[in-house]
Amino acid sequence: DQLPWVETLIDFASSDDQRTQLLMSNTVLLLAEHEENRLNLVKAGLLQPLMYLRTNSTDSTTRTLATEALDKLGVYSHQSLLQLVTMQGMGPLRYLGGCGDVRAQRTAASVLASLLDDDEARLDIVRGDGFRTVLGLATSSDEYIQTIVSIAIANLPLANMDLVRLVQEGCLRGVVALMDSPKHEFRTFATT
What we know:
Elements: H1 4-13, H2 18-32, H3 35-43, H4 47-56, H5 60-72, H6 78-88, H7 91-97, H8 102-115, H9 119-127, H10 131-138, H11 143-155, H12 163-179, H13 184-191
């Protein structure tokens, strides 16, 4: 059950009023100071509004506070993000893979790489919607992230991957990025 104040915070993030955005960023940062709140804040859906403020707010203080809150929530720490994924599933990783924040994408790629070492995790990535993380990361032009995507494609059991279903479910941008990639293995995978 989502607490009513969480919806208010999410609404504050999309407000055009800078003071309201500042209030939201500062409130989440203060709540995230307490470790016991962090998972609940992520579960409540506050990653996306914070990332929105971090990248779109015209106020530098709001952007700074949003970045600090994201940092407290574990978005920029491999160990913290891996723990979040272990406890909550691929949702945060999937969102961060396509969020446009290269620092967060690099952390998501790092966690994805560590998951590739586990046979069961590899199957979960393919069977569940974890491959959306790979597709989200495929849209990045960052060299490190592209390397992780290459490793993922090479190491995941993709024989039964249904790219048509993924496109129908909204992953067209990631599939197109694979098709347009300068990397031969990406193009081969996306067109077969």
